[in-house]
Amino acid sequence: MSRRVAAALVVLCAATTVAVLAGDEDDITLPGCRSRCGNMSIPYPFGVEAGCYLPGFNVTCRRRNGDGPAAAADELLFLGDGTVQVLEISIPNATVLINSSAGYFDGDKYVSLSSPGTWSGALGSGDGDGVGVYSLAWGRNKLFAMGYNVQVRLEADNETSSVCVSLFFEGNFAAPTDDCAGFLCCQSPIWDQRTSYRFKALSLNGSAASLESDTYAWILDSELRFQYGAPQKDALTLPALLDWRINHTTCHANASSPACRSRHSFCHDGSLEVCRRNDSLCHNSTAGFGRAHICRCDEGYRGNPYLPNNGCKDVNECDHPDTYPCHGICTNTDGGYKCECVPGFAGNASVPTGCKDIDECAHPHLYPCYGVCLNKMGSFDCQCKRGTYGDPFTKGGCSYLTGGSTSKDLLG
Ligand SMILES: *[C@@H]1O[C@H](CO)[C@@H](O)[C@H](O)[C@H]1NC(C)=O
Ligand SMILES: *[C@@H]1O[C@H](CO)[C@@H](O)[C@H](O)[C@H]1NC(C)=O
Ligand SMILES: *[C@@H]1O[C@H](CO)[C@@H](O)[C@H](O)[C@H]1NC(C)=O
Ligand SMILES: *[C@@H]1O[C@H](CO)[C@@H](O)[C@H](O)[C@H]1NC(C)=O
Ligand SMILES: *[C@@H]1O[C@H](CO)[C@@H](O)[C@H](O)[C@H]1NC(C)=O
Ligand SMILES: *[C@@H]1O[C@H](CO)[C@@H](O)[C@H](O)[C@H]1NC(C)=O
Ligand SMILES: *[C@@H]1O[C@H](CO)[C@@H](O)[C@H](O)[C@H]1NC(C)=O
Ligand SMILES: *[C@@H]1O[C@H](CO)[C@@H](O)[C@H](O)[C@H]1NC(C)=O
Ligand SMILES: *[C@@H]1O[C@H](CO)[C@@H](O)[C@H](O)[C@H]1NC(C)=O
Ligand SMILES: *[C@@H]1O[C@H](CO)[C@@H](O)[C@H](O)[C@H]1NC(C)=O
Ligand SMILES: *[C@@H]1O[C@H](CO)[C@@H](O)[C@H](O)[C@H]1NC(C)=O
């Protein structure tokens, strides 16, 4: 019964949208370094070969089925020397999505699908300073569990990080809801960052003995949603989101770091979600993750700030009218853009009706007319007065025609 429950879970929505403004695919890493593994990008500071990564960011690319003439699509990417599988690396978000194993309880017996009893998902591994480059992305993962009449706990250092309860009543014919709010499955956010976690499954009365069902628990990317449906064997590993940091030092006063090598890049302190949400938590995070920095591209630039020289590239704002609306003439500039009204109009071209017709006749010093001035939409007419002929735009350009010869009557 419980196994059937577990097998009936599918990932409904893997909310991985490709960033519209992503940098060019061609130079994401250092020259001569491997940039792809299967269908995965390997952006610097991550790298496979020696000299191709910053300390702690080594990754391993392996064939799923060992050596042989297998297709490149059969390659998998792993953090470090290769137990934690990478699903996606994001440079701007400074995150890596991993394929994370469930904790599994067979009745009351813990049978881990990951390392013995714990979930570490590469946390704390990396640059060997005891802190590591990876931590659980703060506030962006949840404890997710399946089973029934069970409370599932996520513990770290003997403290509870998150807990959720999943129920099932005999005779209750309600269907499980998509949000897994406690009927056959449950979920609850995780708000801390530890170097390792441990799953626990208890009966509703708090005892660890005699669980009524097999129980599965995951640390799961918060953005993923679930729905019951056809069985799917892949459901035993689900994506979790890790933060990564260049260095567990701050940016040293005025935002410098040897890692931010691109032009138009800067060092960003307190880059953790924790710091963004609550600065006072930033400096005292349990595992020391609070002190850290990453690199960012300047405003108006996108790309890879860790690459020397040209990693951060100018964004052509004019190509992205949804983000940078322009209802006039858009001109890209280095690090910015200009949005101007078409000739004859003035105002704020960034808003739909921002450009107004210029009444040229009201500004004779800007739009000289020495005849009769008539404003039009986007332009104006200037004609010599009735009975005169010539060039109304220059002073004295209009004159009367008298019997075949012109008299230089000055008009205007
Ligand atoms: C890579 O391929 C897998 C399976 O074909 C797919 O689920 C995944 O979305 C792909 N990832 C990227 C980054 O294209
Ligand atoms: C690769 O990373 C792992 C763990 O992050 C580390 O133990 C190992 O020494 C690294 N290997 C190299 C060649 O840097
Ligand atoms: C980056 O973070 C944003 C906001 O949480 C998210 O919508 C987007 O999917 C993320 N991109 C990647 C590549 O992880
Ligand atoms: C995640 O790992 C499991 C078990 O190794 C594997 O079956 C599954 O294909 C992996 N998922 C992806 C998207 O590669
Ligand atoms: C957690 O609790 C166990 C048993 O009570 C104890 O042996 C262990 O030292 C504790 N660990 C920490 C990190 O407090
Ligand atoms: C707790 O409940 C389980 C059944 O779920 C039962 O086997 C066990 O005896 C109960 N323990 C206590 C202390 O009541
Ligand atoms: C940082 O820069 C500001 C101006 O940009 C300057 O006033 C300040 O002295 C600098 N601080 C250090 C420590 O260099
Ligand atoms: C990390 O910080 C230390 C101390 O400031 C510095 O010596 C080292 O070069 C930094 N490493 C990187 C990759 O920025
Ligand atoms: C930030 O965290 C501190 C320490 O836990 C707390 O006292 C403070 O109220 C928090 N501030 C906000 C805005 O949440
Ligand atoms: C942070 O840690 C420092 C020393 O480790 C301590 O003096 C300070 O009170 C702590 N701050 C908070 C908000 O816990
Ligand atoms: C034009 O309108 C936009 C959107 O309301 C505003 O952000 C911008 O500051 C305006 N520009 C000028 C020059 O007023």
UniProtKB/TrEMBL annotation:
Residues 314-351 form the EGF-like domain. Keywords: Disulfide bond, EGF-like domain, Repeat, Signal. It is found in: Membrane. It comes from the Eukaryota. GO terms for cellular component: membrane. InterPro entries: EGF (IPR000742), EGF-like_Ca-bd_dom (IPR001881), EGF-type_Asp/Asn_hydroxyl_site (IPR000152), EGF_Ca-bd_CS (IPR018097), Growth_fac_rcpt_cys_sf (IPR009030), NOTCH1_EGF-like (IPR049883), WAK_GUB (IPR025287). One of its GO terms (molecular function) is calcium ion binding. SUPFAM superfamilies: Growth factor receptor domain (SSF57184). Its main location: membrane. It is a single-pass membrane protein. This is EGF-like domain-containing protein. It comes from Zea mays (Maize).
